[in-house]
Write a structure and sequence with these properties.
- 39% of the residues lie in helices and 14% in strands.
- The chain has helices at 20-30, 52-61, 75-87, 103-115, 130-138, 158-163, 187-200, 262-274, 280-291, 296-300, 305-318, 348-359, 385-406, 415-419, 423-427, 430-436; strands at 36-37, 98-101, 121-126, 142-149, 155-156, 169-175, 203-207, 232-237, 250-255, 323-324, 333-334, 337-338, 361-362, 364-365, 377-380.
- It is globular.
- It starts with 19 loop residues before the first helix and ends with a helix.
Length: 437
Protein backbone atom coordinates (compact mmCIF):
# COMPACT_ATOMS: atom_id res chain seq x y z
CA UNK A 1 0.00 0.00 0.00
CA UNK A 2 1.30 3.45 -0.89
CA UNK A 3 2.46 5.29 2.26
CA UNK A 4 0.50 8.36 3.33
CA UNK A 5 2.97 11.17 3.98
CA UNK A 6 2.58 14.32 6.03
CA UNK A 7 2.40 17.66 4.24
CA UNK A 8 5.68 19.19 3.14
CA UNK A 9 4.52 22.35 4.93
CA UNK A 10 5.33 20.60 8.21
CA UNK A 11 8.99 20.10 7.33
CA UNK A 12 10.11 23.21 9.21
CA UNK A 13 7.52 23.04 11.99
CA UNK A 14 8.32 21.92 15.52
CA UNK A 15 6.61 22.37 18.87
CA UNK A 16 8.94 20.71 21.33
CA UNK A 17 7.02 21.96 24.37
CA UNK A 18 4.77 19.01 23.51
CA UNK A 19 7.35 17.07 21.53
CA UNK A 20 9.45 13.90 21.81
CA UNK A 21 10.42 14.48 25.45
CA UNK A 22 6.76 14.74 26.42
CA UNK A 23 6.00 11.58 24.47
CA UNK A 24 8.72 9.78 26.44
CA UNK A 25 7.32 11.17 29.70
CA UNK A 26 3.84 9.87 28.86
CA UNK A 27 5.24 6.39 28.30
CA UNK A 28 7.06 6.55 31.64
CA UNK A 29 3.83 7.60 33.37
CA UNK A 30 1.99 4.71 31.74
CA UNK A 31 4.64 2.47 33.29
CA UNK A 32 3.77 3.87 36.72
CA UNK A 33 6.57 6.42 37.13
CA UNK A 34 5.83 9.86 38.61
CA UNK A 35 7.15 12.75 36.51
CA UNK A 36 7.73 16.30 37.80
CA UNK A 37 6.71 18.49 34.87
CA UNK A 38 8.58 21.74 34.39
CA UNK A 39 7.81 21.94 30.69
CA UNK A 40 4.50 23.76 30.27
CA UNK A 41 2.64 26.67 31.87
CA UNK A 42 -0.52 24.74 32.67
CA UNK A 43 -1.47 26.58 35.85
CA UNK A 44 -4.54 24.61 36.91
CA UNK A 45 -2.50 21.40 37.08
CA UNK A 46 -0.33 22.98 39.79
CA UNK A 47 -3.17 24.22 42.00
CA UNK A 48 -3.66 27.69 40.50
CA UNK A 49 -7.44 27.53 40.18
CA UNK A 50 -9.50 29.76 37.92
CA UNK A 51 -11.30 32.47 39.96
CA UNK A 52 -14.65 31.16 41.19
CA UNK A 53 -16.62 34.11 39.75
CA UNK A 54 -15.30 33.22 36.28
CA UNK A 55 -16.41 29.62 36.74
CA UNK A 56 -19.85 30.76 37.90
CA UNK A 57 -20.34 33.03 34.88
CA UNK A 58 -19.65 30.13 32.55
CA UNK A 59 -22.00 27.83 34.45
CA UNK A 60 -24.86 30.35 34.46
CA UNK A 61 -24.54 31.01 30.73
CA UNK A 62 -24.22 27.39 29.61
CA UNK A 63 -27.96 27.05 28.78
CA UNK A 64 -27.60 29.82 26.16
CA UNK A 65 -24.20 28.72 24.84
CA UNK A 66 -25.21 25.84 22.60
CA UNK A 67 -25.55 27.93 19.44
CA UNK A 68 -22.92 29.69 17.34
CA UNK A 69 -22.05 33.23 18.34
CA UNK A 70 -21.06 36.09 16.04
CA UNK A 71 -17.87 34.97 14.30
CA UNK A 72 -15.88 37.69 16.08
CA UNK A 73 -17.35 36.81 19.48
CA UNK A 74 -20.18 37.67 21.83
CA UNK A 75 -20.97 41.33 22.48
CA UNK A 76 -20.24 41.29 26.24
CA UNK A 77 -16.77 39.83 25.81
CA UNK A 78 -15.76 42.16 22.99
CA UNK A 79 -17.12 45.16 24.90
CA UNK A 80 -15.01 44.18 27.91
CA UNK A 81 -11.91 43.90 25.74
CA UNK A 82 -12.67 47.31 24.22
CA UNK A 83 -12.88 48.85 27.69
CA UNK A 84 -9.57 47.19 28.56
CA UNK A 85 -7.89 48.80 25.55
CA UNK A 86 -9.20 52.18 26.68
CA UNK A 87 -7.64 51.66 30.12
CA UNK A 88 -4.38 50.74 28.40
CA UNK A 89 -4.33 53.92 26.33
CA UNK A 90 -4.82 52.18 22.97
CA UNK A 91 -6.65 54.66 20.73
CA UNK A 92 -9.41 54.10 18.22
CA UNK A 93 -10.46 50.52 19.01
CA UNK A 94 -14.08 49.64 18.19
CA UNK A 95 -16.05 46.43 18.62
CA UNK A 96 -15.33 45.54 15.00
CA UNK A 97 -11.59 45.57 15.72
CA UNK A 98 -11.84 42.78 18.31
CA UNK A 99 -11.78 39.06 17.56
CA UNK A 100 -12.41 36.31 20.12
CA UNK A 101 -10.60 33.03 19.55
CA UNK A 102 -9.98 29.58 20.98
CA UNK A 103 -7.08 30.96 22.96
CA UNK A 104 -4.54 33.39 21.53
CA UNK A 105 -3.02 30.41 19.68
CA UNK A 106 -5.85 30.17 17.16
CA UNK A 107 -5.72 33.90 16.53
CA UNK A 108 -1.96 33.82 15.92
CA UNK A 109 -2.51 31.26 13.18
CA UNK A 110 -5.41 33.28 11.78
CA UNK A 111 -3.37 36.50 11.69
CA UNK A 112 -0.32 34.96 10.00
CA UNK A 113 -2.43 33.06 7.46
CA UNK A 114 -4.24 36.25 6.47
CA UNK A 115 -0.99 38.19 5.95
CA UNK A 116 1.74 35.96 4.56
CA UNK A 117 2.30 34.72 1.03
CA UNK A 118 4.96 32.21 0.01
CA UNK A 119 8.34 33.88 0.42
CA UNK A 120 7.15 36.63 2.77
CA UNK A 121 9.27 37.03 5.89
CA UNK A 122 8.21 37.61 9.49
CA UNK A 123 10.70 38.78 12.11
CA UNK A 124 10.55 36.68 15.29
CA UNK A 125 12.59 36.78 18.50
CA UNK A 126 15.20 34.16 19.35
CA UNK A 127 14.38 32.59 21.70
CA UNK A 128 10.69 32.65 20.85
CA UNK A 129 7.41 31.01 21.75
CA UNK A 130 7.62 28.32 19.05
CA UNK A 131 3.99 28.59 17.97
CA UNK A 132 4.92 31.85 16.21
CA UNK A 133 7.62 30.16 14.13
CA UNK A 134 5.36 27.21 13.36
CA UNK A 135 2.42 29.44 12.36
CA UNK A 136 4.68 31.50 10.11
CA UNK A 137 5.94 28.39 8.31
CA UNK A 138 2.46 26.89 7.96
CA UNK A 139 1.24 30.19 6.49
CA UNK A 140 3.82 29.87 3.71
CA UNK A 141 6.03 32.56 5.19
CA UNK A 142 9.68 32.40 6.19
CA UNK A 143 10.50 32.90 9.88
CA UNK A 144 13.53 35.16 10.36
CA UNK A 145 14.80 35.24 13.94
CA UNK A 146 16.32 38.35 15.48
CA UNK A 147 18.54 37.81 18.49
CA UNK A 148 17.68 38.78 22.04
CA UNK A 149 20.72 39.71 24.11
CA UNK A 150 21.18 37.73 27.32
CA UNK A 151 23.91 40.13 28.46
CA UNK A 152 21.31 42.93 28.42
CA UNK A 153 18.57 41.04 30.22
CA UNK A 154 17.30 39.35 27.04
CA UNK A 155 16.42 42.63 25.32
CA UNK A 156 15.92 42.47 21.51
CA UNK A 157 19.06 43.46 19.63
CA UNK A 158 17.92 46.43 17.55
CA UNK A 159 20.97 46.33 15.27
CA UNK A 160 20.23 42.68 14.49
CA UNK A 161 16.59 43.50 13.72
CA UNK A 162 17.61 46.27 11.30
CA UNK A 163 20.12 43.99 9.60
CA UNK A 164 17.46 41.34 8.95
CA UNK A 165 14.81 43.57 7.36
CA UNK A 166 14.50 42.89 3.63
CA UNK A 167 12.01 43.83 0.88
CA UNK A 168 10.20 40.58 1.78
CA UNK A 169 9.70 41.48 5.47
CA UNK A 170 6.00 41.93 6.25
CA UNK A 171 5.97 42.24 10.05
CA UNK A 172 7.65 41.82 13.40
CA UNK A 173 6.58 39.78 16.42
CA UNK A 174 7.23 41.16 19.92
CA UNK A 175 6.56 38.88 22.91
CA UNK A 176 6.39 41.07 26.02
CA UNK A 177 6.61 39.93 28.80
CA UNK A 178 8.64 37.30 27.09
CA UNK A 179 8.15 33.57 26.95
CA UNK A 180 10.59 31.81 27.51
CA UNK A 181 12.97 34.33 29.14
CA UNK A 182 10.65 36.29 31.44
CA UNK A 183 12.11 39.57 30.12
CA UNK A 184 10.06 42.77 30.28
CA UNK A 185 10.81 45.46 27.70
CA UNK A 186 11.19 49.14 28.49
CA UNK A 187 9.02 51.83 26.92
CA UNK A 188 12.11 53.26 25.20
CA UNK A 189 12.92 49.95 23.50
CA UNK A 190 9.32 49.49 22.39
CA UNK A 191 9.30 53.00 20.93
CA UNK A 192 12.38 52.04 18.88
CA UNK A 193 10.55 49.00 17.54
CA UNK A 194 7.50 51.11 16.64
CA UNK A 195 9.72 53.64 14.83
CA UNK A 196 11.40 50.83 12.88
CA UNK A 197 8.02 49.33 11.92
CA UNK A 198 6.84 52.76 10.79
CA UNK A 199 9.98 53.31 8.70
CA UNK A 200 9.70 49.99 6.88
CA UNK A 201 5.90 49.60 6.75
CA UNK A 202 5.82 46.54 8.98
CA UNK A 203 2.83 45.09 10.81
CA UNK A 204 3.48 44.66 14.54
CA UNK A 205 2.25 41.50 16.26
CA UNK A 206 2.25 42.15 20.01
CA UNK A 207 1.97 38.96 22.09
CA UNK A 208 1.07 40.32 25.55
CA UNK A 209 -0.47 37.24 27.17
CA UNK A 210 1.60 37.79 30.36
CA UNK A 211 0.98 41.55 30.68
CA UNK A 212 -0.42 41.17 34.21
CA UNK A 213 2.12 38.57 35.40
CA UNK A 214 4.81 41.00 36.61
CA UNK A 215 7.21 41.01 39.56
CA UNK A 216 9.09 43.53 41.69
CA UNK A 217 6.60 46.36 40.97
CA UNK A 218 7.46 46.24 37.26
CA UNK A 219 5.06 47.94 34.82
CA UNK A 220 4.06 46.83 31.34
CA UNK A 221 3.70 49.19 28.37
CA UNK A 222 1.14 48.01 25.80
CA UNK A 223 2.87 48.25 22.43
CA UNK A 224 -0.28 49.43 20.67
CA UNK A 225 -0.50 52.43 23.01
CA UNK A 226 2.65 53.92 21.45
CA UNK A 227 1.25 54.73 18.00
CA UNK A 228 -1.93 55.47 16.12
CA UNK A 229 -0.47 55.02 12.64
CA UNK A 230 1.42 51.69 12.80
CA UNK A 231 -0.85 48.70 12.24
CA UNK A 232 -0.64 46.61 15.43
CA UNK A 233 -2.32 43.34 16.32
CA UNK A 234 -2.35 42.64 20.06
CA UNK A 235 -2.94 39.14 21.44
CA UNK A 236 -4.08 38.20 24.94
CA UNK A 237 -6.09 35.51 26.71
CA UNK A 238 -7.54 34.14 29.94
CA UNK A 239 -5.00 31.33 30.08
CA UNK A 240 -2.32 32.83 32.30
CA UNK A 241 -3.38 35.86 34.36
CA UNK A 242 -6.77 34.21 34.96
CA UNK A 243 -5.50 30.59 35.26
CA UNK A 244 -8.04 29.40 32.68
CA UNK A 245 -5.94 27.58 30.07
CA UNK A 246 -8.58 24.98 29.29
CA UNK A 247 -11.35 27.52 28.70
CA UNK A 248 -9.62 28.42 25.40
CA UNK A 249 -10.67 32.05 25.42
CA UNK A 250 -8.36 34.60 23.84
CA UNK A 251 -8.68 37.85 21.93
CA UNK A 252 -6.96 39.84 19.20
CA UNK A 253 -7.21 43.61 18.88
CA UNK A 254 -6.48 45.47 15.63
CA UNK A 255 -5.32 49.07 16.08
CA UNK A 256 -3.33 51.72 14.20
CA UNK A 257 -3.83 52.60 10.54
CA UNK A 258 -6.76 50.37 9.65
CA UNK A 259 -7.62 52.23 6.43
CA UNK A 260 -4.36 51.17 4.80
CA UNK A 261 -5.00 47.61 6.03
CA UNK A 262 -8.51 47.29 4.62
CA UNK A 263 -7.63 44.31 2.42
CA UNK A 264 -5.78 42.51 5.23
CA UNK A 265 -8.72 43.05 7.59
CA UNK A 266 -11.03 41.54 4.96
CA UNK A 267 -8.78 38.48 5.06
CA UNK A 268 -9.00 38.35 8.86
CA UNK A 269 -12.79 38.55 8.65
CA UNK A 270 -12.92 35.81 6.02
CA UNK A 271 -10.85 33.41 8.15
CA UNK A 272 -12.82 34.35 11.25
CA UNK A 273 -16.07 33.54 9.46
CA UNK A 274 -14.72 30.22 8.17
CA UNK A 275 -14.15 28.86 11.66
CA UNK A 276 -17.75 29.97 12.54
CA UNK A 277 -16.93 31.17 16.05
CA UNK A 278 -14.78 30.59 19.11
CA UNK A 279 -15.81 28.38 22.04
CA UNK A 280 -18.90 30.19 23.36
CA UNK A 281 -18.84 29.06 27.05
CA UNK A 282 -15.27 30.35 27.37
CA UNK A 283 -16.26 33.72 25.91
CA UNK A 284 -18.68 34.28 28.78
CA UNK A 285 -15.73 34.33 31.19
CA UNK A 286 -14.03 37.31 29.52
CA UNK A 287 -16.22 40.12 30.84
CA UNK A 288 -16.00 38.93 34.44
CA UNK A 289 -12.26 38.32 34.19
CA UNK A 290 -11.38 41.74 32.83
CA UNK A 291 -13.85 43.67 34.95
CA UNK A 292 -13.59 41.76 38.21
CA UNK A 293 -11.08 41.50 41.04
CA UNK A 294 -7.58 40.93 39.65
CA UNK A 295 -6.57 38.00 41.82
CA UNK A 296 -3.30 37.59 39.92
CA UNK A 297 -1.99 40.47 42.05
CA UNK A 298 -2.18 38.25 45.14
CA UNK A 299 0.14 35.75 43.45
CA UNK A 300 2.78 38.15 42.11
CA UNK A 301 3.16 40.50 45.07
CA UNK A 302 5.81 40.08 47.75
CA UNK A 303 4.86 36.92 49.64
CA UNK A 304 2.63 35.74 46.79
CA UNK A 305 3.05 32.17 45.61
CA UNK A 306 4.29 32.93 42.09
CA UNK A 307 6.81 35.47 43.28
CA UNK A 308 8.13 33.22 46.06
CA UNK A 309 8.52 30.32 43.66
CA UNK A 310 10.23 32.49 41.07
CA UNK A 311 12.73 33.70 43.67
CA UNK A 312 13.35 30.22 45.03
CA UNK A 313 13.80 28.59 41.60
CA UNK A 314 16.12 31.39 40.45
CA UNK A 315 18.33 31.06 43.50
CA UNK A 316 18.48 27.26 43.31
CA UNK A 317 19.24 27.24 39.58
CA UNK A 318 22.01 29.80 39.96
CA UNK A 319 23.57 27.79 42.78
CA UNK A 320 24.38 24.97 40.32
CA UNK A 321 27.99 25.23 39.04
CA UNK A 322 28.15 26.28 35.42
CA UNK A 323 24.51 27.42 35.32
CA UNK A 324 23.46 31.08 35.19
CA UNK A 325 20.10 32.73 34.69
CA UNK A 326 18.77 36.25 34.16
CA UNK A 327 16.06 36.91 36.76
CA UNK A 328 12.66 37.08 35.05
CA UNK A 329 10.58 40.23 35.55
CA UNK A 330 7.41 38.68 34.19
CA UNK A 331 5.68 35.50 32.97
CA UNK A 332 6.07 32.01 34.46
CA UNK A 333 9.43 30.93 33.10
CA UNK A 334 13.16 31.38 33.18
CA UNK A 335 15.74 30.47 30.55
CA UNK A 336 18.97 29.33 32.23
CA UNK A 337 22.29 29.00 30.42
CA UNK A 338 24.49 25.92 30.63
CA UNK A 339 28.11 27.07 30.28
CA UNK A 340 29.37 25.16 27.19
CA UNK A 341 32.83 24.81 28.75
CA UNK A 342 31.27 22.98 31.69
CA UNK A 343 28.50 21.20 29.77
CA UNK A 344 29.75 20.34 26.24
CA UNK A 345 26.31 19.41 24.89
CA UNK A 346 25.96 18.59 21.20
CA UNK A 347 22.25 17.64 21.03
CA UNK A 348 20.20 19.33 23.73
CA UNK A 349 17.04 17.33 22.95
CA UNK A 350 18.94 14.11 23.59
CA UNK A 351 20.48 15.69 26.68
CA UNK A 352 17.12 16.57 28.25
CA UNK A 353 15.68 13.23 27.25
CA UNK A 354 18.49 11.72 29.33
CA UNK A 355 17.63 14.15 32.15
CA UNK A 356 14.01 12.92 32.03
CA UNK A 357 14.94 9.25 32.03
CA UNK A 358 17.40 9.55 34.91
CA UNK A 359 15.69 12.16 37.13
CA UNK A 360 11.99 11.91 36.13
CA UNK A 361 12.03 15.70 35.66
CA UNK A 362 10.65 17.02 32.36
CA UNK A 363 12.22 20.16 30.87
CA UNK A 364 12.33 21.67 27.38
CA UNK A 365 15.62 22.25 25.59
CA UNK A 366 16.52 25.75 24.38
CA UNK A 367 16.59 24.84 20.71
CA UNK A 368 12.89 24.01 21.07
CA UNK A 369 12.43 27.79 21.39
CA UNK A 370 14.46 28.44 18.25
CA UNK A 371 17.57 29.39 20.20
CA UNK A 372 20.48 28.58 17.87
CA UNK A 373 22.81 26.83 20.34
CA UNK A 374 22.37 23.77 22.63
CA UNK A 375 23.23 25.69 25.80
CA UNK A 376 19.91 26.80 27.34
CA UNK A 377 16.67 25.33 28.65
CA UNK A 378 13.34 26.63 29.89
CA UNK A 379 12.11 25.95 33.39
CA UNK A 380 8.52 26.52 34.55
CA UNK A 381 8.35 27.53 38.23
CA UNK A 382 4.69 26.60 38.77
CA UNK A 383 4.88 23.34 40.80
CA UNK A 384 4.41 23.54 44.56
CA UNK A 385 7.52 24.52 46.47
CA UNK A 386 8.38 20.99 47.62
CA UNK A 387 8.15 19.59 44.08
CA UNK A 388 10.11 22.51 42.66
CA UNK A 389 12.90 22.05 45.20
CA UNK A 390 12.98 18.31 44.54
CA UNK A 391 13.06 18.77 40.76
CA UNK A 392 15.94 21.25 40.83
CA UNK A 393 17.83 19.09 43.34
CA UNK A 394 17.52 16.11 40.99
CA UNK A 395 18.68 18.26 38.07
CA UNK A 396 21.65 19.52 40.10
CA UNK A 397 22.66 15.95 40.95
CA UNK A 398 22.38 14.92 37.29
CA UNK A 399 24.50 17.89 36.21
CA UNK A 400 27.12 17.04 38.83
CA UNK A 401 27.42 13.53 37.41
CA UNK A 402 27.65 14.99 33.91
CA UNK A 403 30.52 17.28 34.96
CA UNK A 404 32.32 14.40 36.59
CA UNK A 405 31.86 12.28 33.48
CA UNK A 406 33.31 14.99 31.26
CA UNK A 407 36.03 16.13 33.63
CA UNK A 408 34.59 19.64 34.01
CA UNK A 409 33.65 19.46 37.71
CA UNK A 410 35.71 22.47 38.78
CA UNK A 411 35.40 24.05 42.25
CA UNK A 412 32.84 26.84 42.40
CA UNK A 413 33.99 30.43 42.51
CA UNK A 414 33.08 31.44 46.08
CA UNK A 415 34.26 35.04 45.76
CA UNK A 416 30.65 36.15 45.36
CA UNK A 417 30.02 35.35 49.02
CA UNK A 418 32.79 37.74 50.01
CA UNK A 419 31.87 40.58 47.66
CA UNK A 420 28.13 40.77 48.27
CA UNK A 421 27.36 39.62 44.72
CA UNK A 422 24.82 36.90 44.05
CA UNK A 423 25.98 33.58 42.68
CA UNK A 424 24.51 34.63 39.33
CA UNK A 425 26.42 37.91 39.33
CA UNK A 426 29.70 36.17 40.03
CA UNK A 427 29.26 33.98 36.94
CA UNK A 428 28.13 36.77 34.64
CA UNK A 429 30.37 39.08 32.61
CA UNK A 430 30.68 42.55 34.14
CA UNK A 431 28.25 44.14 31.67
CA UNK A 432 25.55 41.62 32.57
CA UNK A 433 26.04 42.17 36.31
CA UNK A 434 25.67 45.93 35.84
CA UNK A 435 22.44 45.37 33.90
CA UNK A 436 21.06 43.18 36.66
CA UNK A 437 21.86 45.85 39.24
Amino acid sequence: MKPVLKSAKLANVCYDIRGPIMDAAKKMEEDGQKIIKLNIGNLAVFGFDAPEEIQQDMIRNLPTSAGYSDSKGIFAARKAVMHETQKQGIAGVTLDDIYLGNGASELISLATNALLDNGDELLLPAPDYPLWTAATSLSGGTPVHYMCDEERGWMPNMADIRKKITPHTKGIVVINPNNPTGALYSRELLEEIVALAREHGLVIFADEVYDKVLYDDATHTPLASLSQDVLTLTFNSLSKAYRSCGYRAGWMVVSGDKKAAKDYIEGLNMLSNMRLCANVPGQWAVQTALGGYQSINDLICEGGRLRKQRDMAWELINAIPGVSCVKPQGALYMFPRLDPEVYPIEDDQEFFLEVLQETKVMLVQGTGFNWPRPDHFRIVFLPHEADLREAIARLAKFLQKYRQRHGTDKPRNVSAANTGETATDAKKPKASREHAA
